[in-house]
Every structure is written in C-alpha cells, then in structure tokens.
Write a structure and sequence with these properties.
The relative contact order is 0.17. The model has no long low-confidence stretch (mean pLDDT 81). This protein has one domain: Growth Hormone, Chain: A, CATH 1.20.1250.20. By secondary structure, it is mostly helical. The protein is globular. The longest helix has 30 residues.
Length: 379
C-alpha cells in the first residue's frame, strides 16, 4: 500500500517521470551505504529484534507522512526524506528476515518454507495495491495511515516468533568479517551467477516505477487500475508459489531459472507494447509467475549453500543485489522514460533482460548445469 501511495503522490505532485525514478534511487543509496554493516549485525545480534526495530521505524515514518498529508503540507521533499528512512530500515530488515527463516523450520522443509514465504509476501503485494487503489477514493493519506498501523502490529508480532535453533554466536567485528559475505559469494560461481543474473535482469526489465504513467497516460485509467497493475505480478507469483509449495523444484533448477528470466523479459516486452488493460494485466501476471520461479531458486541456493553463522552477511549481499535491481532499476526506468518515453523504456528493458539471460548461460555454466536447489550439478 505504501509503495502505491508514495508513487502516486510523487507523480501527482511533480508530474515527472524523473521524480518517480528518484524514488527508487532514494531507497537504493542507504542500502548501498549500509549493506556490509547490516550483514554483520544480522549475524551478531538477535535477528528478531533487528526486524522489530526496522518495522517500528517504518511505521513511525509512514505515520509522519500520513499526518503531513492530512494537514495538507506534504511536499515532494518530505516524501523523499521519508523514502530514504524507509530504504534504510528495509535495508536492515530484508536480509535479516531472510536469514531468520532457516531457524524456524527443519532444513529438509526449507524449500517449501521459502515457496510459502514468497507466496505470503506476494499475497500482500496483491492485497496492498488493490486496497490502496480503493482507499485513494477516500483520500491519498488513508493508505499511508493504514500502512503505518499494520507495520506497528507486525513489529510486535515479530517479537513473538519462537526459534527452533539457537541464535548465531557473536564474533568480533573486523574488516575481514564485514566483507566475508561478499567474498563467500564471489568464490561460489553458482551463487555469483544467480545473484548477478537477478541483478541485471530486473535492473533492465523493471517497469514498476512507470506504472503510474501507464495507468494514467497510456491505458487512460486511474488509481484503481494502478492498483490492479501493481497487483497483477503478485497474482501470477502467488499462483506459482502455490504450485511450487505443492510440487517443489527437484531437478534442472539452473535451466529452469534461465528459462524463467527469458519469460520475464518476454512478458515485459508485451506489457510495454500493450495499450489494452486486460493484455497488460495478463502480461504482468506471467511476469510475476516467472519472477517467482527465479526468486525461489535463488533464495534456496543462497540459504542452502551458506552456513548459518554467515547467513546474515551473505543475505545482505543478496539483498544489496536485489535492491540494486529493484530500486536502481526504477531509477533507470524513470530516466530512460524521461529521455525516450515510457514505451521505448520498457521495450528496451525487456530485450535487455532476454540478452542478459542468454549471455549468463555462457558465462556461468555451473549455474546452468545446477540440478538441485542445493547447487548440485549434473553427474
């Protein structure tokens, strides 16, 4: 809900594609500056408490934006300041939450747990944009206020999580330990290939930041259709999550990951060229389903290939790459849309995503030949 509200308010107040791109950049910068410190903290302190403080900070920030909008004094500068704080909090929250998951379930159920976790997240991505679109009819401040309230509830729920395993042991902070997660990823070609593939594919293929433009100026609809567009990828992802939770990926995961990225790029192309709301929604649903396959494979490879004592640092690197692809991808989409127009921006991104997948198949044969979610290759 907050993402839809912020995007719509920024575009309504600035009428600028560049401004939408800078929303992504404002979230990306704190992630880059904090990423290596984040990972060590996730391996050093109680991961539940870190997530609690992050979500509480997000609740306070969104509550402040809600009050400013209610008072009629919310400016673009205030929105961007709030986005920076949200970006910093999420930079801590996301890798810590990912590292928390293996401590909640037996290792032999981790692949199903990941699929279920992704499905729960995508369900929120369905309900959030749709509800935000509906709530906009009562005022743009309402989605911000409800988001703040729900995050406050979530932060309290996190403290009630019971761990099945002991929290990570504390170790002395050194320069080597801070950067050890990055070194671990670089030395593992399967991890490096999967994480960097997601980085460049989503960096080029991300059209989320431009959805307010497509909703208003290309599809000629309003806030409700924006919610539908934002929800469509999540609908496809939830459908795929249900399928993968019931029938987990067993063999040929490397080739399936590359195929999913190619489908993601093709669906991006269809969305960029479409002038029909139904076709656009269908393309985005396919895009979300394909992206879900890639997310489950990459997340499983990262968690199953990493010792628990290093999961915070490795997931911080993973989150940095994801954040780069998502937030910097929004910035790239906004800039190219400002220069060439929204349709050429999305079409170029879709073509680039397909080319990246084909190139990465050549550069990372270990990933291409990976058979299981633990990274085992063909015998």
């Amino acid at each position: 809900m907050a993402s839809v509200a912020v995007g719509w308010l920024v575009y309504a107040k600035t009428n600028s594609a560049f401004a939408l791109g800078f929303v992504g950049l404002a979230q990306f910068v704190p992630m880059v500056l904090l990423s290596f410190v984040i990972g060590h903290m996730a391996d050093h302190y109680d991961r539940r408490k870190i997530v609690y403080f992050c979500q509480f900070a997000e609740a306070v920030t969104l509550g402040s934006l809600f009050l400013l909008q209610m008072l009629g004094i919310l400016s673009p500068a205030a929105i961007f300041a709030g986005v920076v704080i949200l970006g910093a909090a999420r930079a801590f929250e996301q890798p810590t939450m990912s590292a928390l998951l293996p401590g909640l379930v037996p290792i032999n159920m981790l692949d199903r747990a990941i699929a279920s976790s992704v499905g729960a997240m995508q369900t929120a991505f369905i309900l959030g944009p749709a509800v935000a679109g509906l709530l906009f009819s009562f005022g743009p401040s309402i989605p911000l206020g409800l988001s703040s309230f729900l995050l406050a509830l979530s932060s309290g729920a996190v403290l009630m999580i019971r761990m099945e395993t002991q929290p990570p042991r504390r170790e002395k902070i050194t320069l080597a330990s801070v950067f050890s997660g990055f070194s671990f990823v670089v030395k593992n070609p399967i991890l490096m290939g999967s994480i960097s593939l997601d980085l460049f594919a989503v960096l080029l293929g991300g059209a989320t930041a431009l959805m307010p433009i497509f909703a208003r100026d290309i599809l000629h609809s309003g806030a409700l259709s924006l919610g539908m567009l934002r929800a469509a990828p999540a609908i496809g992802a939830v459908g795929m999550s249900i399928f993968l939770a019931r029938w987990p990926l067993q063999r040929g995961v490397g080739q399936k990951m590359f195929l999913s990225v190619v489908v993601f790029g093709g669906a991006t192309l269809v969305f960029g060229l479409s002038e029909n709301l139904i076709v656009s929604l269908a393309a985005l649903a396919v895009l979300g389903a394909a992206d879900n396959v890639s997310v489950v494979i990459r997340s499983s490879l990262v968690l199953l290939s990493t010792p628990d004592a290093m999961r915070g640092r490795v997931n911080a690197v993973n989150s940095l790459f994801i954040g780069t692809s998502n937030q910097l991808g929004e910035f790239e989409s906004g800039v190219t849309a400002g220069l060439f127009g929204p349709v050429p921006s999305v079409v170029i991104g879709g073509c680039g995503t397909i080319l990246i997948a084909l190139l990465w198949m050549k550069l990372f044969p270990a990933l291409r030949n990976a058979q299981t979610l633990a990274g085992e290759a063909k015998s």
